Amino acid sequence: MKLMHNKFVVRDGASAWTGSTNMTDDAFTLMENNIVTIDSAPLAAYYAEEFEQLWEKENFENTGDIRTVAAPITFAGQPGNARVMFSPGRGYEIDSEIARRVREAKRRVRICSLLINSGTLISELGNLLDRGSVRIDGIYDRTQMEDVYRQWQEVPSNRWNLLGKNSTRYTPTSKHDYMHNKVLVIDDTVITGSYNFSRSAEFNAENILFIDSPPLAETYSHYIDHLIGKYRK
Q1: What CATH number does residue 91 fall under?
Q2: In this structure, is residue 92 part of a structural domain?
Q3: For residue 57, is it within any domain?
Q4: Which residues contact 146 (CB under 8 A, 6 or more apart)?
Q5: Containing H/E element for 184?
Q6: pLDDT tens across 72-100, in order?
């Protein structure tokens, strides 16, 4: 099933915010989510172009084919850059870019995600595990990923060091308290947005940010440590 899954807001053409957060009470109070606010006219323009495509076509199957380049940003007084991409128009390219960055990781790949079942991503993570020179760890939603994680663990070479949050199984009336983030920290890069690291994400209407910023990567890394500590107890 293809979904319109974007979450973003453009403000005055000069800034944009995005992240994993649904606009629901549970998303703000029960789920683990993140929001990134970036003051950048170029990035805001890309998001506005995506919005116009969605608005004019009244569907999303032919949206998101927007050629983007990285824009300069500043975080914690240090320069960096951020590039946004959209699916489904750039879905295959997004999948390839995530895989490339994982493949080229030198120090760490930290995962904080509801889902991890993209075959391309899993393959590259497996290759890193075989190399044994890059730290791979993080947190995921155990309830949503239970069957997939069990299959991974049946493969001896898959030495995954991931902690799972035991969220509430879905029913229409249950509380929705998923570990809902979509974050990868790869060395000094943060990858986040509405884009799940799943097989179907490249066919949905999604947005994703590739943010190269050492201090921001450290901030997200501390956040992941916080969540691991919280659910290890």
Answers
A1: 3.30.870.10
A2: yes
A3: yes
A4: none
A5: strand 182-186
A6: 999 999 999 999 999 999 999 999 999 99
